[in-house]
Design brief:
The protein is α+β, with helices and mostly antiparallel strands. It contains five helices and eleven strands; from the N terminus they run βββββαβββαββαβαα. The chain has a five-stranded mixed beta sheet, with helices on both faces. The protein has a four-stranded antiparallel beta sheet with strand order 1-6-2-3. Strands 4-5 form a two-stranded antiparallel sheet.
Length: 241
């Protein structure tokens, strides 16, 4: 049995730019309750930046401080006259608020800061379970659940091929889950679900026995995301219903 260690940030969507003055906006905290998944949201929320992304910071009230900054592995950026600023898991507008607030507390009066996306780091998803090559899969274009499985080496003989589980973090930390039925597409009888995967999504192919989802939870989730046992049953119920 292969064990895949995962680090799961939360993914999601693409935004363009944010412009703000101090003070900074609060980021909502996670709200996980009793093993229940949040309702699946099909719309694209604002993009949240992660380590490896680059942001273009424009300080309109002090142009000499403007620059492109790379978000480091710790989620922080280095800016002139400031200590490292935490920006990971924030939208462009929220980052602009944080930077403006930091400058207002130190060297500038009523700073106006704008943040735009400069470049994005690797766009990866995670594919696990009963596939031949579990691990990170790079998103080089539109990828659905079935394509993700094929990029991970295809199904193992022990896989339950009817439905593939997709897990996605939502803004604020809640966890969404849906299943994608790929059986008709595998038999050449119709199209697969048109769900498009996003950065940091998790695709899980269960074993043919649904009870084996517990193995997935123990190996891939417990200790990384604070979940209770109801998580396993919730996935199983979704697959069975």
């Amino acid at each position: 049995m292969r064990v895949l260690s995962l680090v799961i940030p939360l993914s999601i969507g693409l935004g363009l730019s944010g412009c703000a003055s101090s003070p900074s906006a609060e980021i909502p905290t996670a709200n996980w309750g009793s093993g229940h998944f949040a309702a699946w949201q099909a719309s694209d929320p604002e993009y949240r930046f992660f380590p490896g992304d680059s942001i273009d910071v424009t300080v309109h009230s002090a142009p000499e401080l403007s620059r492109v900054a790379l978000i480091g592995p710790d989620g922080r950026v280095s800016l002139p006259l400031l200590a490292n600023v935490m920006v990971a898991d924030r939208t462009d507008h929220e980052i602009a608020n944080v930077i403006a607030d930091a400058y207002a507390r130190s060297v500038l009066v009523s700073p106006i800061v704008e943040v735009r996306r400069a470049a994005l780091g690797p766009q990866n998803i995670i594919v696990g379970g009963e596939v031949n090559s579990p691990g990170l899969v790079a998103l080089t274009g539109p990828v659905g659940a079935l394509e993700a499985v094929m990029l991970a080496g295809g199904f193992q003989n022990s896989a339950a091929r009817g439905k593939v589980v997709v897990l996605r973090r939502m803004p604020g930390g809640g966890l969404m889950m849906r299943t994608v039925d790929v059986s008709d597409a595998l038999r050449g009888r119709g199209n697969v679900d048109e769900l498009q995967l996003r950065r940091h999504d998790i695709v899980f192919v269960p074993r043919s026995t649904i009870a084996e989802i517990n193995v997935f939870v123990e190996q891939y989730v417990t200790g990384i995301i604070p979940l209770d046992q109801a998580f396993s049953y919730a996935i199983a119920n979704e697959i069975n219903n």
